[in-house]
Amino acid sequence: MLIRVEHLRKEFSENVVPLADLSCEIDEGDVVSIIGPSGTGKSTFLNLLNRLETPTSGKIWFNGEETTAPGYDLNRLRREMGMVFQSFNLFSHQTLVENVMLGPVHLLGKGKQEAYEQAMDLLQSVGLYSRALSYPSECSGGQQQRAAIARAMAMNPKVLLFDEPTSALDPTMVSEVLAVIRNLAKSGVTMLIVTHEMNFAREVSNRIFYLDEGCVYEEGSPSVIFEHPVKEKTRRFVKNIRCYDWDSVKSGMDFPRLQGEMENFAYRCLLSPDLINRLEMLVEETLSQLFETGREIHISLHIHLEVHEKKGEIHVEIRWSGKPLNVLEGKDEYSMILLHHACPDAVYEEKDGVSVLRGIVRRKQ
Ligand SMILES: Nc1ncnc2c1ncn2[C@@H]1O[C@H](COP(=O)(O)OP(=O)(O)O)[C@@H](O)[C@H]1O
Ligand SMILES: [Mg+2]
Question: Which CATH number fits domain 3-238: 1.10.1040.50, 2.40.50.840, 3.20.19.10, 3.40.50.300?
Fold first, then answer.
């Protein structure tokens, strides 16, 4: 085992606690992609591993030694743990080859000639041999990031940490940087990669960590996490599912507000006007039957919408307690026609006093 993390916690303040209790183990040769919504502490996690940040509590072992113990040599840690940042962080007054030589000469005490030869080899391996004497400002973002990777590799680290290495790049330059990381993965370098590039993560890593709620919320092989995640939140994240929930207990029966929020949600999901129309038709017709004059109104009502962005469809669930009413078999024929038009495959179910109307509003074929 190369890295072991136990009950890691980081509080920036009373209210900002990105990592509450994170534990994990990483073996030599592992390529771990770290995914999760923004603000869930992915960068914080990497910065705690290489000790750019100090944990509030918890322990980290690296290569058999506890890095969080008093007296541990942080300079050694920095030599053995390479870091590639989103923003390249090259020294602007030095050429690419000088950037790559810097660590070996000053931190490892290598001779200049040896460091130069190694740097040129590394630049060649990332496709930058001919740019060795250029300054960072003369290079594209993709070239700078590839040089930053070569610089990290020059220290011959035991593990490389990447924090969103492609997110500051022009889209046209993403693939050249991913190709370099892919080659490193093939050569057996241990890596932890924070990334939003899901296809890349799936292809390059043997393990995926989904970070949420202050911990490694779910981890598994790429096929488990991307195709069969166990937990609901993971599924929503990887399938790019957005949700909207409305609860009468919290919001009262303020239907204009419900309608406004639903519309806002649908527009943010870039749904077509036709889909939005039929969603509203489904919800409004159901509610108007439920709240038709004379009917019992002491009910609780919950509306759950899920939008699958790729498929462009809305999963709708309307759940209420109180008197059961099969809104799909109501007396009003016009209402039936509208409901059928909105969602032909909607189904109604009643169990233990809870009624549910479920359906998927789809694009018209
Ligand atoms: N140095 C810091 N001081 C205070 N708050 C911070 C600091 N760094 C990060 N945070 C906060 O911690 C949370 C997690 O941040 P971060 O680790 O950058 O998330 P991610 O990389 O997953 O987007 C965020 O709410 C962020 O604002
Ligand atoms: Mg981050």
Answer: 3.40.50.300
**Confidence band for 82, pLDDT divided at 50, 70 and 90:** very high
Which pLDDT tens digit goes with each residue over 176-206? 999 999 999 999 999 999 999 999 999 999 9
**Is the confidence at residue 171, as pLDDT, over 80?**
yes
264 is written with which tokens?
Answer: 């806002």
Predicted local distance difference test score (pLDDT) of residue 363: 83
Is there a contact between 326 and 347 (Cβ–Cβ < 8 Å)?
A: no
Domain boundaries, the chain: 3-238, 241-361
Q: Look-up: residue for tokens 């489904």?
A: 282
**18 CA → ligand 1 middle, Å:** 7
CA 307 – ligand 1 centroid, Å = 28
Residue 163: in which H helix or E strand, if any? Answer: strand 159-163
Domain range 241-361, CATH architecture = 2-Layer Sandwich (3.30)
Q: Is the pLDDT of residue 107 over 80?
A: yes
Tell me, letter by letter, the H, E, C secondary structure of 139-176. Answer: CCHHHHHHHHHHHHHHCCCCEEEEECCCCCCCHHHHHH
Q: Which of 12, 48, 213, 216 to mutate to test the pocket of ligand 1 (most atoms within 8 A of CB)?
A: 12
Secondary structure class of 56 (helix, strand, coil): coil
Q: What is the DSSP letter of 132?
A: T
Mutation choice for ligand 1 from 22, 34, 43, 193, CB with most ligand atoms inside 8 A = 43
What is the CB < 6 Å shell around ligand 1? Answer: 12, 16, 18, 38-44
User: What's at 285, amino acid-wise?
Assistant: E
Instruction: Name the E strands within 237-326.
Output: 241-247, 301-308, 313-321
* pLDDT given for residue 253 in this prediction: 81
Tokens of 4: 């072991």
